[in-house]
Each structure stands twice: as C-alpha cells, then as structure tokens.
Amino acid sequence: MINRQNYEAFFLDYLEGNLSKKEASILEQFLAKNPDLKTELNEMELFILPTPDISFPNLNQLKKIDLELSDLDNLLIGQLENNLSPNEQAELNQKINQNPTITKEQKQYQLTKISPDLTITYPNKNDLKKKDKKLISIRFFIQAAAIFLLLVAVFFALKEKPTHTESPIVDTPTNTPSIKIEKNPKTIKQIETSTPKNSNKTKLIKPSTEQQV
Predict the structure, then answer these.
(1) I need a labelling partner for 173 at 20 to 30 A (CA). Which of 40, 66, 130, 206 fits?
(2) How far apart are the first and last CA of the chain?
(3) Burial 146-160 (b: 16+ CB within 10 A, else e)
(4) Whole-angstrom distance, CA of residue 15 vs CA of residue 23
(5) Hey, which residues does 182 pair with through a beta bridge?
(6) Of 33, 52, 31, which is closest to residue 42 (Cα–Cα)?
(7) Is the pLDDT of residue 213 over 50?
(8) What pLDDT is recorded for position 174?
(9) What is the CA radius of gyration of the chain?
(10) How far from chain centre, in Å, is Cα 18?
(11) Which residues, in sequence order, are bridge partners of residue 191?
(12) pLDDT digits over 14-66, tens only?
C-alpha cells in the first residue's frame, strides 16, 4: 500500500513508466487524498529529459570484423621476418612471377620494418650502465653492535671493581708509661719514668759497663 512514507518510490516508478494500470490508479487515488504531494510529483517531472530520436543507418560498420590473412600475406610477412622455409620461399617467388603486382604489397610490408640508424652514437655509454652499490650487510652491523656492548660492559665492570691496597700501619698514641731498665752487675732496678705525651714506645737502655754506686 502506498502511504506518505513510501510514496517517493511510487513516484519514481510512475515517472519511469514501471507502474501497472492498477498501481497507477491507486497512485491517483492517493494523490486525490494528498493534494500537496501532487505538486511534488509535478516538480519531479521537470527533471525527466526527453529521449532524442537518433538513429545511425550504418550499424553494421560498427561491428568488429575478424580479418583473416591470406596465404600471400602470410608468405610476405614470413619473408620479412626471415621465417620462410625453402619450399615457402619458392612458392612466394612463383606467385610473384605469376603476378608482378605482388611486389607492391611486398614493398609495403617492408616499410613496416624499421632499421636503426647505426651512425647515431652516444659518447657517454658508461654513464648509462647500472652501477652496483656496495651494500654493507646487516650482519656486519649486528656484530659491530655486539662488540661495542661487550666493550662497554667490560669498561663499567673494571670501573666498579674495588682496588685492594695495603694501608700503612699507623702507631696509635697511648698514654702507657714506658719502663727504663738499668742493669748493673749486682742488681737490676726498674725505674718507671714518665714518657712524653703521645708516645707509646718503650725505650730500652742498655746497661752501662760502668758500675753505679
């Protein structure tokens, strides 16, 4: 059924002549009930261009014609391309002798072959050659990167390794008094003497050879 939601599709079918008589009658009844849409249909009719009555009398000339080469054409083309066998060459010579006008066609075929002008030379031929560029393989870059990373790792490992050096022995000062020993032939007398401050060394005095009274 036609309604205000799908009327545009019916309008297009009506303008293109695709509606049956029954559908056209239903459309007219719909327009009678919706006169505002009839104006829209009339405006859409303005966009339809009339079909011009143009005819082409020689339609057969537009068709593709399959051209078949005759035996003579095949012989002439074969001679031009140096593809004739001795028997075919003898057959072509016989036809030319029987009909000298074939030489005209033979010349026309020969004009289709272009021969290069060997007098024209290019002095800089070496510039036209493709030069092979030396490409460094990706394997070389991988090896170089691996060696570089190894050297960096060794460098930081040696830098962070602690060095063992012998620290000098320093005499720590103490206030321990030293003992002075005097020795004589009869008695050994210990004499405690005071030592200077910040000295921890014990002085040993050799016994004198002289007797002390």
Answers:
(1) 206
(2) 158
(3) eeeeeeeeeeeeeee
(4) 13
(5) 189
(6) 31
(7) no
(8) 52
(9) 63
(10) 55
(11) 180
(12) 888 888 888 888 888 888 888 888 888 888 877 777 777 888 787 777 776 66
